# Entry
Amino acid sequence: MKKLLSILILSCVFFAGCSDFLEEDNKSGITNDEFYKTASGFESLMTASYSGLRNIFGRDGDNAPYVYFAGTDMYESTRNTNADRGILTYNGLFPSDARVTSFYTAVYANIQNVNLGLAYVDAAEISDALKKQYKAELTCLRAILHFWLIEQFGGVVLHTQATQSAITSIPRSSLADSYNFVISEMESQVANLSDNNKRLGKEAGYHYLAKMYLTRGWDLNDQASFTKAKENATKAINGKGITIPFETLWSPTNENNAEFLFSVQYDVASLPSVTEGNSQQSLFGSYLGGTETGLGKYQATTVYPSWSLQSFYPFNDKRYEGTFMTIIYNNYYDYYNPADTATKAIYAFYPRGNGADFSSADSIAWVTKNASRLKRNPNGSLAFRMRPFKSNERAYRWAWSQDFYGPVIKKFDSPATKATFSIRASARDIVLARRAETYFLYAEACIGLNQFGEAQTYLETVTRRPGNSKNGTPLVPVTNIANLTSQSAALDSYLIESAKEFAGEFLRWPELRRTKKLKEFVGRYNWDIRVDNGGAEAVLPGDVAKRYRPIPQAAIDRNDALTEADQNPGY
# Structure
């Protein structure tokens, strides 16, 4: 009960009063203070600090972390044309936006979980060694949580005290002070983290410290921060390479592998219900029908992977097939059973041509060859769909409003829960940091220092991952950054490589924002912003306006130390 009480209390940290709720009916006769000092009580605080990450990244389609992917080059609006247009296109994005408020609230609620842990760690009835480790985890996790807010909102309210009432009088810190806080907190404890990648471990700690320095380098125009980013990325890489084939890396049977540094953990056995997992597998792709199709996977159609994202992959790049489900069998999850892929009917096929569009002749030849396996309706009519990728964006989008419009992202599929047709039916871990990204952070810091040749070397380490090339020729970035002389051009190439490697992962919006490429990339690659709304200039005027998300109006209204002057420009 005590654990549940604390978690419920924390949701009101910024957005509601808590006085009535705190009048607990304490039938056990033990106070919070006594309980949290026990070994089991303190473990409940550690559990809450980690499980709170599920409320940030793992909720359903409506409360998914839109702030990480909406309004970028990689993802576009679905056929629900009026849904979330504000955050997807910036046209009508206001401080009252529910998606932004949901993220802001969830992060601060988990900061309070962590603050309670830090308040009791020294008095907890656990070993000194465990106290040292847990204190390091909690300190670094609190810094990371604040950093996630900095990425989205700029200077933030720094919340460092455990409270059991609504916070109403903490001022917003400057951007520089916010960075100083998170970096100093990380540096004070990162060396004390463990080597366990199921928790916040040492490599993940250095990864996030590198990311903090990198982001500060761009935001504050601080060259020394780029150098520090490289130093910490090197510690995070720890002499280890990129060795796992991409398809194997994301296999549902290969969670917590050596390249995954930090994940939000899930397990079927630990879930109260399989409908209380996470939604990541259902966010990125077109609708695949309801239970009537028998496919088994619920697609929330939160966003569509953009034509631009798909066009970034050259035909020889096997990561395309590792990222997207290009062939759907009788049941969506048949793909993960080789015996099924050899015998089951084919429901949908999403081919790409090699150097040219997949032609009508190609389509006819493929259908003729596989005629006996094409999915049919009970009345004998053909249920099979073919949606070839087209090099012309307008032509590709003709089926935009239809089911099975384009391939869905498959990296996060959860075959273990395939029997449950629900948005939140995934029991897969949500990977928040992996070694390939650390290599990219190092490369980006090199670009910040105009060290283009070194940046190219680090990107090639990732692109040359075993199995990335279909024909065996080592896969390299489409543009050789080493041959460029412009930092802007180097960032363009870097960001396209990042899109291909990290599709569907919660990275893109902060990445575009920190490199000051948000306006340019959405104007160039997002159809909705480029065409539907008159171009990027119409919705992202100037270099400063809307470079951050709006601070939720509810947070300003309920914090006496904040005024309308604290709102970010453009809102």
